Amino acid sequence: MSFRLINPAPSPFKFIRRIHFSSISELLSNTDWFLPSPSTQIHTVSVSPHLSFSKVLEGDGKESPVGSCFHVVRDDLLHPLANGNKSRKLDALLPILRQCSATDVVTCGGCQSAHTAALAVYCAELGIKPHLLLRGEQPKIPTGYNLVSLMFGNVTYNSRSVYAQRKEMLYNHAVRVAGANGSVMWADEIFGEDFDLREMEVSNDSRRVVIVNEGASSVLALLGVIRLVNFLSESPLFGNWCRVHIIVDAGTGTTAVGLALGIFLLGLPWKVTAVMLADKIESYKERENSLISEFEKAYQLDLPVPTSSYGLEEILSWVERSQPRKFGKVLDGEIERCRQIAQQTGILLDPIYTLAAWDETVSLSLDESKDTKVLMLHTGGTLGMFGLAQRHTSSFEFRKDTNMGL
Length: 406
Hints:
Blueprint: E1 19-21, H1 24-29, E2 42-47, E3 53-56, E4 68-73, H2 85-90, H3 93-99, E5 104-109, H4 114-126, E6 129-135, H5 144-152, E7 154-158, H6 160-163, H7 166-178, E8 183-186, E9 208-211, H8 219-233, E10 243-250, H9 254-266, E11 271-276, H10 281-298, E12 299-301, E13 316-320, H11 334-345, H12 354-367, E14 372-377, H13 384-391, H14 400-403
Parallel strand pairs: 1-12, 4-14, 5-6, 5-9, 6-7, 8-9, 10-11, 10-14, 11-13
Antiparallel strand pairs: 2-3, 2-4
């Protein structure tokens, strides 16, 4: 079997045989993970009637907060540079890269992509050379995730017209990296029972290049998010089959689908609201159906409820942002709001991604019944604030009396 691809966009799961597991727990226990543990910190935030916030500290002797409150999964604290849902989506993928002796990885993202930065950091830790194809022009002053990508990876900037053809761009670059004697593989094609390294027609000194989709959007990414759901379901805070409503911001939408799929497979009375940021609902639904279809092709599970397909309609809701806008646009006052929330709670948000989830979480915490716990997944991305400070300099010119707390 040769793994040198001849088409720029091969069919998913070309080399995968369906694997049967008696339960999602068996699947999770038989998966090799990169993160030592799925555990994460969970903080509680109280909401005052006039919409100011405060973090609820454990063991401070104070009474339970009066009024509404919600919880925050602090995945932004998983790693100083590579955290949030980026770590979750790479949790099952990185061990596979190591198992197939990948020498190089090619992926793509925006100039301030947290995904490319995370993959670069983790690949550098594993001794794998990351090649990062970034959209647009090189900033005059590298900062934020762009700086992390430059420090840990090999960065190439691509025009927006070239980047629009992502599959072709990724494949062509991977072929150049592999050279005449190397191999090129797409990440979703190298896991399953029938993958055998001995069949790879490459010599020991050849380069094995693996292509990872933008945002690590793949069935492998779902596994890491499902692992998080399993951890949360075993937490004393959310155990005993209590109702939980999870809110997450949606870029590619992969994390939201993984959360909903984990809830379904574990048979939990939970639901997910995904705040759409980068696309229309039709595109998110199409991606949801595609990911579920790919998951079904890869794994055969004994389902918790009798059904012929994973229907997530009752679990996953796609909603517009409270103030819809073109992706990447920051509205007046949003950076100041992030600053106020940081000072009140110690939780740093960014106005493009996590502030959208925060606003939806606050709204739901005020509306949900008391027997439902509202939970926001912090997807990280806070280093993106450094890039925003370059683009929106006036928004970071805080008044002196504000800085003094007067």
